[in-house]
TrEMBL record:
It comes from the Bacteria. Belongs to the AHA1 family. Pfam families: AHSA1. Transmembrane segments: none annotated. It comes from Nocardioides zhouii. Residues 22-160 form the Activator of Hsp90 ATPase homologue 1/2-like C-terminal domain. This is SRPBCC domain-containing protein. Signal peptide: none annotated.
Length: 162
């Protein structure tokens, strides 16, 4: 499995996931740059994602929904703040109320920095999410973000191999 470390720091309000992939950074970058590839790995395996909008550029917006096994849809969005492909990108990640992708202000927004660093054997990906408060971090931890994100990231290996 690619995920090698998961760490949350309540004082720093961060969740950090580290993963190692046997592919160059450019190939890992392509997973995020191509909405059809990203759909195959964003969200847990039983909650496939559909990206309705995908603009991986500063100021861009990426709107998506995940569909549960029962057919319920869960909406989210990314607002892209920085792009340094293929080394990484930064974005605000929020929950949306419905298919309009209006922010759900009852749930936290996180600032995310995804970094892809070449290693001798491939690429180390570091995913850092920072929350406004320790309570916001605790809220998403209670919602199962570690398990969901880890299972989503672990799907990337199969995609890279195909």
């Amino acid at each position: 499995m690619p995920v090698t470390d998961v760490h949350h720091d309540t004082d720093a309000r961060t969740l950090t996931i580290t993963a190692d992939f046997a592919a160059p950074a450019e190939r890992v970058w392509e997973v995020y740059a191509d909405p059809r590839q990203l759909e195959r790995v964003w969200g847990p395996p039983t909650y496939p994602a559909t990206f309705v909008d995908h603009e991986l550029a500063p100021g861009g917006r990426m709107n998506y929904f995940m569909t549960s096994p029962e057919g319920a849809k869960y909406y989210g969005y990314w607002t892209i703040t920085e792009v340094d492909g293929p080394r990484g990108f930064t974005f605000d990640d929020g929950f949306a109320r419905d298919e309009t992708f209006a922010p759900n202000t009852d749930l936290p927004v996180s600032v995310n920095v995804y970094t892809f660093t070449e290693t001798d054997g491939g690429t180390q990906a570091t995913y850092v999410s920072t929350f406004a408060t320790a309570e916001a971090l605790q809220q998403v931890l209670a919602m199962g973000v570690v398990e969901g994100a880890s299972s989503a990231i672990n799907q990337i290996d199969d995609l890279l191999a195909s």
